């Protein structure tokens, strides 16, 4: 390929069954001049009808080109104006042609120029009305060219008194067709070729166009130099004119430059080895990859072996064996170049004789050192993350053991479940606490340290152990949160942006009473008499955010038949859904679980709950008073 551009060849359209032969062509005067328009219809409609039809088509083309509109729009307006003025459409078309027949006349028309203004300028006295004529086929030709890429045009032929081709006039054009002055597409319609390319009329190409019109046989011309580039031109007869297309040819002088640019972009070079003649060729960038002076020629076998890394010998041997089996070789090996190791990917194949013996070897060598270094760095990062993940998981299992089943505490039964995030996520800082106190009450807690990984797990351990120690001094949930907040604020001095949430509850089995407080944590859920509701949260900011923060207590009754659910935000929060949606889902799950197993709801409940956020750990604690 080597950077060579491949372009579509726009061939000329061959006449179909509806088109006439060259013998039926004849000239019809237009605008009173010496030139005539070549007809070329399959069925002879008579001189008057033929002349009128061509005049209408010519007027439509001129109007569309000047007003920069589609041919169908110009034709419809021409018919409408003829009907409104009660004049013959062919006569009106003749007036338009006479007004716009020459480039000078077109230039003299005042701006702005619209189809109505152009037609109005051509009207004088209107003769008797006639019925509108048939739709012009030029609209169909223009519609086809509108959808074609590249440069293609349809040109009507003007002939002299001797019947020879005198000029070509643009009647339809593709959007990419352009003239030296910048006119494009339908802007060309109605303009003569002699205005822009007078040298063509006097050259050999003109005789080819004449032959195509006379014989109906398409012709290919080229290469032809136009606007600094070489083009192949194809011309074919279509009705009364020519369909001409241009295809730009690749510039052979720029091919080496393109190939070299592609080699540098892909950091690759290529080479060939003719085994018959012994000739070896390396592209310029292959020398750059091996950092070798081109004057020394390609590397020899001994030189190649000298720079190869010895540990890659099995790879090279396997590649050679595959080559002997007539397979394409694709292998990455290492070489020592300029005092450093390079990773080179080699793709090689061969042209072989009928017995499979190689006659010519050709291949591509790409320097993939940077890609390999990046892959090695990613692998190292992955190993580091995996080690950190394993360390955090072990740490979490040590400091946060999860009981396999429900545990019995004074006056209540508690069940805990831990839902870790997906395997690709780091361990989080979710934790729980459930233990009896010396006065016979029970202390429950659930918390969440922001972040993931070893640091979050370490902070979680500090909070859990601090709560256990502080519970010896006080069992008031609000006071315990105040102490934990001071601890988090001190830790935040060493670790900025450290924060956590928690909810703590103390259950008094004798009074059937639950005192609780929270620090920026989702509200606990209480299921009573078959209905689950979130508890109204007392005041309390997140831990580690406000120095000397105060946390209020709330008191509720907690009686047999009730179910209390403490949880971390991973159970209800999801980045694609609102908190209310997640909370409603959990409430419905609690209701269903209690109804399904009213005597033993804890196991049923924990078996049904699922985390809402797969990227976050979730810790759930469910409690139920015992009768």
Protein described:
- This is ANTAR domain-containing protein.
- Keywords: Hydrolase.
- Pfam families: ANTAR, SpoIIE.
- One of its GO terms (molecular function) is RNA binding.
- This protein is α+β, with helices and mostly antiparallel strands and about 625 residues long.
- The chain folds into 3 domains: about 20-250, no CATH class; about 255-365, Beta-Lactamase (2-Layer Sandwich), CATH 3.30.450.20; about 400-625, Phosphatase 2c, domain 1 (4-Layer Sandwich), CATH 3.60.40.10.
- Helix content is about 35%, strand content about 25%.
- The protein has 17 helices and 23 strands.
- Strands 1, 2, 3, 4, 5, 6 and 7 form a 7-stranded antiparallel sheet that branches. The protein has a 6-stranded antiparallel sheet with strand order 13-14-23-22-19-20, with helices on one face. A 5-stranded antiparallel sheet has the order 9-8-12-11-10.
- β3 (about 150-160) and β4 (about 165-175) form a beta hairpin.
- The radius of gyration is 44 Å and the shape is elongated.
- The model is unreliable at about 1-45, about 100-110 and about 125-135 (pLDDT under 50).
